[in-house]
Amino acid sequence: MADYEEAVALHKRGSFAQAQQRYRAHLARRPDDARALAQLAVCTLQGGGEYEEAVSLARRAVQLQPGCARLRHTLGRLQEKASPPRWAEAADAYARACEKDPSSVQMLLDLARALKELDRTAAAAEAYARALELAPDHPRAHFKLAMALRAMGRTERAAEHFRRHLEIDPSHAAARFWLAACTGDAADAAACPPDMVAGLFDQYADKFDSHLVEVLSYRTPQLLLDLLLSAAGEAGAPRPWRACADLGCGTGLMGPLLRPHVSGQLVGVDLSAGMCDKARQRAGCYDSVEVGELVEWLRRVKGQQRPGQEEGQQQQQQRTAGAFDLLVAADVLVYIGDLEPLLGAAAGVTGEGSLFALSTELLPETGEGRGYVLQATGRYAHAASYLRDVGARTGWRVAALKRDVIRTNAGKPIHGNLCVLQRAAAGGGGGGGTGE
């Protein structure tokens, strides 16, 4: 066993090449050691080896000991490491592992995750519930079950598990946010937690464009540009614009539409590093793309404190208050309820007459409440009257306002506000503009 024990020690230290040599030396003498085969499979993949070789080793281990839950679990983990992940194979391996060891919470959680990735949400919820039967105070199981129930439209049950999660972990911002979404109480949820948004879109970046355009029939960029150009003409705003910030640029869907109308700097800003990477790949579009939370980024620009890693010092110095004559936020404010901090910060980097084109999901006018709500989808909706009021408080007037279908969800139209704000003179604000 000396070779095996030495291999395990090297493996734990991260010396993968040496560990593989010792595993193979051990297996040369004991070719049917399923445990060593599984360890070699994991080590091979960790050391940058061939994926198919690693999976083949793990399958051989399972064949040797078909009743071993741990070996099937290892095979499932390796199936997840494929590019793209083989979720169906992983789910099958996890399900068989759970059959062999129905008392393993971790195996149930992994099974549930694979099922969720396969859009088998009800089955995933069942697996999470089974995990909670074994570990009633497991916070992640409560959170994941709540998310699955919410996706199934069972918001009351979801809220119960979000509450239980918060009893165990009161600092969990995402659980607090989703509880507010389930109950409709946005008093303590003025915006989505930034880390949650960044994490969501980092995972979503590779399939974002196709899903948004092909599945959700996303129309906001072109609709917003059309309204912006019309409003600019009526307001007599000079064009092309000198400098524009695309706030919440995502993968850059808005960038190619804006580029012909911006003579100087076109800057993209987004919370998600993954989305920013995609936006940078749009050749001839953005002059720079930066990762940042929007209000903080705007305040840094105003104070000339923003690091300029992607541009020269001269360009950075040009971005003082009044540096941008155009700001755009397409399908971004659905993640922000209270718009006053954002519009206030935006006023600090724009001069009189500058424009801010934005979109929101539509909240029908009721004359009650704060003017925005957090929906069960986790997206905010805003009333048109709220846009006028918050704009007036922060130094903007509505130059144009239109409601339209901005995308679909489950085949149903989602209505939104398309709005162009114009920076008022110092001390001014409010006012009319075109609209409904």
TrEMBL record:
Question: Mind telling me which PROSITE patterns this protein's record contains?
Answer: TPR (PS50005)
- SMART domains xref list: TPR
* Pfam family for this entry, one: TPR_16
Q: Which CDD domains match?
A: AdoMet_MTases
Q: Which InterPro entries match?
A: CellSynth/LPSAsmb/PSIAsmb, Methyltransf_12, SAM-dependent_MTases_sf, TPR-like_helical_dom_sf, TPR_rpt
Which keywords does this chain's UniProt record carry?
Answer: Repeat, TPR repeat
The TPR repeats are at 105-138, 139-172
Query: Where does the record place the Methyltransferase type domain?
Result: 246-350
Q: Which PANTHER family match?
A: LIPOPOLYSACCHARIDE ASSEMBLY PROTEIN B (PTHR45586:SF1), TPR REPEAT-CONTAINING PROTEIN PA4667 (PTHR45586)
Name of the featured protein: Methyltransferase type 12 domain-containing protein
Which species does the entry assign this protein to? Raphidocelis subcapitata
